[in-house]
# Entry
Amino acid sequence: MPFSEILRLAFQNIRANMLRAVLTLMIIAFGIMALVGILTAIDAIAYSLNDNFSGLGANSFSISRKWNDTRSNRGGRRQKPGDPIRYEQAMDFQERFDFPATVSISHWATSLASVKTATKKTNPNIGFVGVDENYFGVKGMDIEYGRNFSKGEVVDGHAKIILGRDIVKTLFDDKPERALDQIVLVGSHRYRVVGVLTSKGATMGNQGDRAVYVPLANARAIYGTADTDYDLMVAVHNATDLEAAQSEATGLFRQIRGLRPSEKDDFEIFASDSLVAILKENTTNLRLATIAIGLMTLLGAAIGLMNIMLVSVTERTREIGIYKALGATRKSILAQFLSEAVVICQIGGIVGILLGILVGNIVTPLLGGTFLVPWGWMILGFTLCMIVGIVSGFYPAMKASRLDPIEALRYE
# Structure
């Protein structure tokens, strides 16, 4: 019997028992939907987090003061900060770091700033950041409109400002072109807008969209003290040199901090690739747990399908006898019943995959991710449905193919 004829008979028998087939395939569909939906959401969120973790750049690392655990008098533990990275130390490092890399110095002055125009004002929860001309390149932040600060503006502390995207939404009705060359006030200080940043989203507490950026000397003049802590970020030109750059940076910064050979580092170096590694490890565990749960759901669907197929064999015993009397072979009978099981599973799989993509991409934006078509998980869904169809349909199909034609024709 040609395969096309086997498929035609499979669809015909499914239509003849539509309610039973629909109930069975919906069990499979919901199992696949849960599997693909959760995996899609995990992947979309992971990609979004990866973009945000790569905010320092894929080839970058930061140097910051060290926080040590110390035991308090009451037996608890508290964090004791190391000495702040002072401006002179940061500048000394930038000048002396002789490596194919770009060094940026910045200072997050406050998170309680308020930005206003003549008619509108933000809430007092805006970040006010002093940066140099290298900051946006090292952080992987793009300027959507306008320009970056020049070196002269950074050194002289000009009253220029670059706005995060949320500030533009509040003050300029989300029209960044209107913000350029306008005067805004941060506290009592006037600034001219020279740029607007591309939105980075709010994943993992990213505050870049709710911050304004001014030349480092300007922020230092307003907020700087003897104990102000500055941030150092380094972006190497070649990703393969990242470890060598970290080693050289550690040695140089120990000299700048005046540490003796016996003293431990009082600063920390944190690479963006370590964040990505943590993310990959955690999302891998989540994916494995999701696949395990999905497989358990599909196991229940497989048992249900096998039961349905066994009932179908019993109900169609006389029909099988007629087929055999007309010359159908055991192989064609087995192929027909196996095809029915696989077709039911694949239809359920298609429905489940479509629902899974829909559900996954509805949940994802709510958690800070972006739309994603999960081709890998779609293939996994089809493969699992094929396996479920073959496993659950094989025994009923084998039972049907082994029926004695004479006994089958006498069956009532």
Summary: Residues 217 and 412 are 95 Å apart (CA to CA).
